[in-house]
């Protein structure tokens, strides 16, 4: 029943109903161009069925309805970002760290002593006055205290940056990271971002609010000698990146007595082209590197942390199913990144591109390992052309002869090829990229042994990418075609190449001239099929309309120049439709034989190397034992007691003769009886001089 305005009571009911109606309309979001007046043109009644019963409802508008005929519902105001402003004179505003204005929450309180605090027995020495941030709590009797141990609402927000006084268009244009006017722990862009993410409400790409997140203040002391700050904050950055804004993933700041000691700022990004999330870390520390002069200066370094080391893939245009990036943390990047921190850069260490180690898995889950530079891209940066240009000099990744399964294997190695180089590209998006394979330089071992065509550049066949294997569009299961670069030096664009000829004629590695010129076939190769092996007319093979004579071409000469080989094969019952299969299976057998030979050679070489190592180890052990024995002997000799030398008197010999020397110098030896003369006639004689 509609209320009547004829009485005071009825008028009050009308006004009450209108207030309720306005509240309902506001919540429902009823909109007019500049406000809509609902009058007599509105429907008079409405019927609603609930639980099988029909109820007649009064209209929302027009006289007698809920809103009445003269109610105007205003258009809701469009959502706008709630931006910060410079704090007023009577608002809590603390500049810590440098040029950043912070303020605690409404629950914050300060605890300090109102009288000087002496140092124990030495009361004439007092501590530096300071006040500490805590959380105000009110007891049941109304008494308010400050709890310094509670972490609830012990927070701060960066409400303003003094750099914004210089950047008048900061609301629409982000300040960029730079070392102007000099290098600092936090640059002007850092401070601007911290205000945006901790105190301002911005709108995401769908128009919804991005709620700011405060910073946890583990410690905030204020004193006349400077502030003590220990703060840490973390944010979800993707909503800011999606609207093209620079962002900070986390911030940690320790500054005792107004001096930065440890400042860590982490920026979100990813590694192009494979898409692994990687954060750029700027770390500033106060250190004393020299004993004299002992100056504690600030030292800053930047490095990458791989936040998402493992990614898996399943796209048909990418032969890799898993990539693990190492190392998790890079060395210090040098030289400095400059403006590349705002967009993208190739990480360098000691002025050379840093070689990341990629552990891969192919379509058959076989392990692979390659090294290559990568491009770090800031999460919000979306200039695809510029990102790909940075990657272009490194797009060709060396696989060094590793065998790669480019598609699911049906039997044997029908989609496996020895790979020299793979060219990678990717499609970037905000926060990541989707990698693709442009081309690959491969060597088919058996074909190379029979006919030295050299490495072949292939790319995925379009029908395989669109429809996979089988079905009416790719019954022949063609998966690769020969390609070449459309423009030299442009690795990202390839076009079909002319078929390569696998020659068995005179001069080829396996030429028929060595067999007396029996036949001289030449087979053209235009692509690879999982069913047929090497094929030429890819479109015909894919749809099942295969022409064996066209495939074999000059491989069907006249036998001895007289008999058509195709007629001879038909006469003996050989189906030419199976010709590619025969070629493929033959090449597979040859390849397996070559692999067995190489494996045997490798095992023999390993055995020889192991024998040489055993001989060298035995020789080294013998030398070590000999040296140990010599050392033991020397030690024993050094420990043995030494006896003093003894005088041994010469033996007493009985003379066998007497020698007479006369004045004229004549000598006479007169033998004594019973002594035979010795060999030395002068030995053992007595002398006498008359």
Question: What attributes does this structure have?
Answer:
eight-stranded antiparallel beta sheet; 690 residues; 15-stranded antiparallel beta sheet; alpha+beta; single chain
Q: What does this 3D model show about the protein?
A:
- The chain has 690 residues and is an alpha+beta fold.
- The chain has ten helices and 44 strands.
- It has a 15-stranded antiparallel β-sheet that branches. Strands 30, 31, 32, 33, 34, 35, 38 and 39 form an eight-stranded antiparallel β-sheet that branches. A four-stranded antiparallel β-sheet has the order 22-23-27-28, with no helix packed on it.
- The N and C termini lie far apart (181 Å).
Largest sheet: 15 strands, antiparallel
Percent of residues in β-strands: 25-35%
β-strand number: 44
Q: What would you report as the Rg, rounded to the nearest angstrom? A: 47 Å
Structural class: alpha+beta
The shape is: flat
List low-pLDDT spans.
30-42, 512-520, 680-684
Mean pLDDT: 81
**Amount of helix:** 10-25%
N/C terminus separation: 181 Å
Tally of DSSP helical segments: 10
Brief summary of the model shown:
The protein is of the alpha+beta class and 690 residues long. The chain has ten helices and 44 strands. The radius of gyration is 47 Å and the shape is flat.
Write the layout of secondary structure elements.
Elements: H1 8-28, E1 36-37, E2 46-50, E3 53-57, E4 72-73, E5 94-95, E6 100-104, E7 108-111, E8 118-119, E9 122-126, E10 130-138, E11 144-147, E12 155-161, H2 188-199, E13 202-203, E14 209-210, E15 215-223, E16 228-234, H3 238-242, E17 250-255, E18 262-267, E19 269-272, E20 276-287, E21 297-306, E22 310-312, E23 320-326, E24 344-345, E25 348-349, E26 352-353, E27 356-362, E28 367-372, E29 375-378, H4 384-391, E30 396-405, E31 416-429, E32 432-443, H5 445-450, E33 456-460, H6 462-467, E34 478-485, E35 494-496, E36 500-503, E37 522-525, E38 527-529, E39 533-535, H7 538-543, H8 548-552, E40 558-559, E41 563-564, H9 565-571, H10 579-639, E42 657-661, E43 667-671, E44 685-688
Parallel strand pairs: 42-44
Antiparallel strand pairs: 1-4, 2-3, 5-6, 6-12, 7-10, 8-9, 10-11, 10-15, 12-15, 13-14, 15-16, 16-17, 17-18, 18-20, 19-20, 19-29, 20-21, 22-23, 23-27, 24-29, 25-26, 27-28, 30-31, 31-32, 32-33, 33-34, 34-35, 34-38, 36-37, 38-39, 40-41, 42-43
């Amino acid at each position: 029943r509609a209320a009547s305005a004829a009485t005071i009571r009825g008028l009050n009911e009308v006004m009450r109903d209108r207030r309720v109606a306005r509240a309902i309309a506001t919540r429902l979001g009823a909109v007019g161009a500049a406000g809509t007046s609902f009058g007599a043109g509105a429907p008079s009644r409405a019927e609603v069925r609930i639980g099988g019963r029909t109820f007649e409802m009064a209209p929302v508008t027009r006289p007698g309805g809920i809103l009445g005929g003269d109610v105007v519902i205003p258009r809701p105001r469009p959502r706008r970002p709630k931006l910060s402003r410079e704090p007023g004179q009577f608002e809590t505003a603390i500049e810590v760290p440098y040029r950043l204005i912070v303020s605690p929450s409404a629950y914050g309180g300060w605890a300090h002593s109102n009288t000087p605090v002496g140092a124990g027995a030495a009361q004439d020495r007092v501590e530096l006055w300071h006040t500490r941030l805590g959380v105000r709590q009110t007891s049941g009797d109304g008494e308010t205290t400050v709890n310094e141990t509670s972490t609830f609402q012990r927070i701060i927000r960066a409400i303003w940056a003094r750099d914004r006084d210089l950047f008048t268009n900061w609301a629409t244009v982000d300040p960029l990271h730079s070392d102007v006017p000099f290098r600092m722990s936090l640059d002007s862009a850092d401070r601007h971002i911290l205000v945006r993410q901790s105190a301002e409400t911005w709108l995401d790409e769908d128009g919804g609010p991005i709620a700011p997140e405060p910073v946890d203040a583990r410690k905030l002391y204020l004193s006349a000698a400077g502030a003590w700050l220990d703060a840490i904050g973390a944010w979800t950055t993707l909503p800011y990146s999606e609207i093209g804004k620079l962002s900070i993933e986390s911030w940690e700041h320790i500054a005792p007595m107004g001096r930065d000691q440890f400042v860590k700022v982490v920026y979100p990004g990813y590694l192009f082209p494979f898409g692994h999330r990687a954060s750029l870390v700027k770390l500033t520390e106060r250190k004393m590197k020299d004993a004299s002069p002992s100056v504690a200066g600030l030292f800053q370094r930047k490095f990458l942390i791989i936040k998402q080391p493992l990614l898996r893939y399943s796209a048909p245009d990418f032969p890799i199913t898993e990539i693990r990036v190492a190392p998790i943390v890079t060395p210090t990047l040098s030289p400095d990144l400059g403006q590349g921190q705002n967009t993208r850069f190739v990480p360098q260490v000691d002025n050379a591109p840093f070689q990341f180690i990629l552990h891969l898995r192919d379509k058959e889950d076989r392990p692979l390992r390659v090294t290559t530079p990568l491009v770090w891209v800031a999460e919000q940066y979306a200039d695809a052309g510029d990102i790909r240009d940075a990657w272009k000099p490194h797009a060709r990744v060396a696989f060094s002869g590793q065998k790669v399964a480019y598609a699911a294997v049906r039997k044997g190695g029908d989609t496996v090829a020895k790979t020299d180089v793979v060219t990678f590209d990717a499609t970037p998006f905000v926060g990541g990229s989707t990698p693709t394979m442009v081309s690959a330089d491969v060597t088919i071992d058996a074909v190379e042994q029979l006919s030295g065509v050299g490495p072949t550049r292939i790319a995925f066949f379009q029908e395989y990418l669109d429809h996979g294997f089988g079905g009416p569009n790719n019954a022949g299961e063609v998966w690769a075609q020969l390609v070449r670069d459309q423009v030299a030096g442009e690795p990202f664009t390839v076009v079909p190449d002319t078929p390569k000829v696998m020659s068995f004629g005179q001069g080829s590695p396996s030429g028929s001239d060595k067999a007396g010129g029996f036949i001289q076939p030449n087979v053209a190769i235009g692509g690879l099929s999982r069913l047929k092996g090497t094929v030429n007319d890819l479109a015909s093979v894919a749809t099942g309309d295969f022409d064996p004579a066209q495939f074999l071409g000059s491989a069907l000469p006249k036998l001895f120049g007289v008999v058509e080989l195709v007629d001879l094969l038909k006469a003996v019952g050989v189906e030419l439709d199976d010709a590619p299969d025969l070629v493929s299976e033959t090449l597979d057998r040859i390849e397996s034989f070559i692999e067995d030979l190489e494996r045997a050679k490798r095992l023999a070489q390993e055995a020889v190397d192991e024998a040489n190592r055993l001989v060298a180890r035995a020789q080294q052990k013998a030398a070590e034992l000999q040296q140990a024995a010599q050392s033991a002997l020397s030690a024993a000799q050094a420990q043995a007691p030494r006896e003093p030398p003894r005088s041994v008197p010469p033996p007493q010999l009985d003379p066998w003769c007497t020698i007479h020397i006369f004045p004229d110098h004549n000598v006479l030896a007169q033998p004594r009886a019973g002594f035979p003369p010795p060999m030395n006639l002068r030995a053992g004689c007595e002398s006498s001089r008359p």
